[in-house]
Write a structure and sequence with these properties.
Blueprint lengths: L1 E6 L6 E6 L2 E5 L5 H10 L9 E3 L5 H4 L2 H7 L3 E5 H4 L14 E4 L4 E3 L2 E7 L8 E7 L5 E5 L7 H7 L4 E5 L4 H6 L4 H8 L7 H13 L4 E5 L8 H14 L9 E4 L8 E3 L8
Helix pairs in contact: 8-9
Length: 270
Amino acid sequence: MRIVNSSSGSKANSTFVGYENTKILIDAGLNEKTLKAHLLQINEKIENIGAIFITHEHIDHIRAVKALAKKYDIDFYVHEKLASSSVFNDYNFREGKLHTFSNDVVNYGDLQIVPFDISHDAIAPVGFAVNVFGSSAKAAFVTDLGIVSETVKLALKNSKIVFIESNYDEKMLENGPYPPILKKRIAGNKGHLSNRQSLELAKYLYDNGTKCFVLSHISENNNTYELAFANFVDYFESNNVYLNKDIFVRVSFQMKIGNNFILKEEFNGK
């Protein structure tokens, strides 16, 4: 399974996931032009994207959806509560191309996509766990969450790679220029995860089999890539878990392509 993050942050979010002829996006928060350009950079085309799975309705996750729904033969998967809201009222989805899910497994081509509930200030926000059908090698994507629930832990457990939110540094947020109400929203139970909270989740996941973490949705105003990265590496190496040997830590960027990951499949019974 190939995984490439196209963008991650408050401006835009989108990740490519593909296996053979099955190719999907998780979110489409870039504008259409930039999204298509980013796909070309990884030798993919928007015409070959079969489906887009939406985590929630904030513009940094759905910016391109309206244009893509009108122009391309793409399936769109959204939570049933989001689909029944007014968010997409003026979107012209082609007939049969808007699909809904709740908490059930979605089988799409060679991929199994498992949505799970998260806590965020949106209608029905979700994360996704993805694996190739019949394989135990799982990738998980969870950003835009204010707290780590037991549901989240269970959904992420035993993932080979996790794209995990590490949004803000607590001191930078506290001392930064944002008004108090926005600071409260970011740090609240329906906001975002701090570097500290992200690391606490990573400790649990590492003990349950995850060895690769991609720090995502890093704030450009209340964090730095260096701080988020050092937060992870300093802790693990101080506990004799060494970077690029025992654990792999990478970052996703706001407006440029991230690492190209190839997740080796571990098929059951083979």
